[in-house]
Design a protein that fits this description.
The protein has 238 residues and is mostly helical. It is 61% helix and 0% strand. It folds into 2 domains: 109 residues, Endonuclease Iii, domain 2, CATH 1.10.1670; 102 residues, Endonuclease III, domain 1, CATH 1.10.340.30. Bound molecules: iron/sulfur cluster.
């Protein structure tokens, strides 16, 4: 895909993102939430519906926290109760309980601002770390989750097998000005249109740029030609 086409896809998806409710973490960042809250909400949001994460952080967990260190004085069971029913709430509660001590021990209690350092914290992988760098610290980072990975491959922007390979490839392909907001555009689009199963290609506004769509169209055309040939009456002159 050319750079102009990438820009065109981005602009269309950005507009779609703006026309729909923003994912909870983007909304928190836009509302100026403190970095530690963005980190916690991002940890909780993995494999969890946005509406559930939003409800848990706004109505249960954050009202009980004045600062990140408060997690240290809670028991794992208390944290579990505060974050239920997010996905994998037991593992996430155990990670949150350890967070203040690890942060203090490795980074003097201050939240680090690089992907590599953030990945040293419990419950934080590259996806979470990139999102925190991009949204909490407003620094260039590309968060590649399942949606970004799937759609970038379908469109033909990258040809990769894992989210990490996609992240590495996108770093080389995308201009830095697109990095921070790339994830939000693709997550929104992946939840509504380019879904994991049965993508709604007939409603897709970027189909003319999509490699998968082109291949499927060409395949359908060639099958139709074969079918037409088979149905054509034999030439009477032959
Ligand atoms: S045309 Fe289909 S596969 Fe391609 S990006 Fe759009 S929804 Fe996804």
């Amino acid at each position: 895909m050319t750079q102009d086409e990438i820009d065109a896809v981005y602009n269309i998806l950005l507009q779609e993102f703006k026309d729909n409710p923003a994912p909870v973490i983007d909304l928190m960042a836009a509302q100026g939430a403190e970095p530690y809250k963005i980190l916690i909400a991002t940890i909780l949001s993995a494999r969890t519906k946005d509406s559930t994460t939003s409800d848990v952080v706004r109505n249960k967990l954050f009202p009980a926290l004045n600062r990140l260190e408060d997690l240290d004085s809670m028991t794992v069971e208390q944290i579990e109760q505060l974050i239920f029913p997010v996905g994998f709430y037991r593992q996430k509660a155990a990670s949150l309980k350890k967070l203040p001590a690890v942060l203090h021990e490795k980074f003097g209690g201050k939240l680090p601002q690089t992907v590599e350092e953030l990945c040293e914290l419990p419950g934080v992988g590259r996806k979470t770390a990139n999102l925190v760098v991009a949204l909490a610290f407003q620094k260039p980072a590309i968060c590649v989750d399942v949606h970004v990975n799937r759609i970038c491959n379908r469109l033909g922007i990258v040809s990769t097998s894992t989210p990490y390979e996609t992240e590495e490839a996108l770093r080389k392909i995308l201009p830095q000005r697109l990095w921070r907001t790339w994830n939000a555009c693709f997550v929104s689009f992946g939840q509504r249109t380019c879904t994991p199963r049965n993508p709604k290609c007939n409603l897709c506004r970027v189909s003319k740029f999509c490699q998968t769509f082109k291949s499927q169209y060409e395949m359908t055309q060639s099958r139709q030609k074969e079918k037409d040939k088979g149905m054509r009456p034999a030439n009477p002159a032959s």
